[in-house]
Amino acid sequence: MTPKPAICCEKPIRVVVVDDHPMVREHLTELINREPDLQVCGEAEDRTGASQVIATTRPHLAIVDLTLKGSHGMDLIKDLQASHPRVKILVVSMQEASLYAERVILAGARGYITKQEATRKIMQAIRTVLAGEVYLSEQLTSQLLTRVVGQPRPATALSVASLADRELQVFEKIGRGFGTRQIAEQLHLDVKTIETYRSRIKEKLKLKDAAELLQRAIAWVHSRAS
C-alpha cells in the first residue's frame, strides 16, 4: 500500500541530497521540489560536506548515494545514526541492491532504491520512509525473504556477502585496480590496517595469495557492471 502524502504545512519537509554526481543531485532536487510540501535544503558530494550541511539544516530526510567522493555512503549512514538519529535516510544508488540493501538497513537507513528505479518511484520511496516505514522494491523484498527462509544462494554470492562492510569496501577497490596505499588514502586508514583487511578477505574467500585476490576482486567488480 502506498503511504498517504505527508500533510502540507507552513514549513516544508526538508531534504538533503548527497551524491557525487552534480547532474544526479540536480535531477533529484528538481523532482523533490515539485512537491508542495517538500524542499531540498542542501546538497553535498562527500561525507564531510554531508555531515556539515545536515548539522546546519537539520533535515527530516537525507537521500544518500553509496559511492561518494573520497568515501563510502555506509560510513556516512553510520555517522548520521550516531550524530543525527532522527534524520531518516533513503539510499539511492547504482550499487548491487541484493548485496547492499540489507547492509544499509542494518546500518540505519530506512529504504533502498536503485537509480534505475528512482525517476519512476523516488516519490513513493520518499513518502514511505517519511511515513516511518521501510522502502524496498518488490524484487528486493522477495530476495531478502528468500534469504531469511534459507533457500541456497550461489557459493560466490554467499562468500562475498560474508565480508564485513569495510572488508567489502576494500575488496571493491582492489577490483577497481587500486593498490594498498591508494586504498588507505581513500578510506583514511593506515597501510597496515588495509593489509589486515586484505588478509581477512583472503581467509574468508579461501584465496591463497594476492594474485588470486586481485583476480577474484576484478571478476566480481566486472560481474556487477555487466
Which features characterize this protein?
two-stranded antiparallel ribbon; disordered N terminus; 57% helix; 2 domains; alpha/beta; 226 residues; Rossmann fold; Arc Repressor Mutant, subunit A
Molecular structure report:
The protein is α/β, with parallel strands linked by helices and 226 residues long. It is built from eleven helices and seven strands. The protein has a five-stranded parallel beta sheet, sandwiched between helices. The chain has a two-stranded antiparallel ribbon with strand order 4-5. Helix 8 (165-175) packs across helix 10, helix 8 packs across helix 11 and helix 9 packs across helix 10. The radius of gyration is 18 Å and the shape is globular.
From the 3D coordinates, which CATH architecture of the largest domain would you assign?
A: 3-Layer(aba) Sandwich
Which oligomeric form is depicted?
single chain
Q: What is the CATH level 1 assignment of the largest domain?
A: Alpha Beta
**How many runs of DSSP E, i.e. beta strands?**
7
State the CATH topology of the largest domain: Rossmann fold
Question: Radius of gyration, Cα only, in angstroms?
Answer: 18 Å
Q: Give a quick account of the main beta sheet: strands, pairing sense, barrel closure.
A: 5 strands, parallel
Secondary-structure element series = EHEHEEEHEHEHHHHHHH
Low-confidence stretches: 1-9, 150-154
Which sequence of strands runs across the widest sheet? 2-1-3-6-7
Beta content: 5-15%
Range of helix content: 55-70%
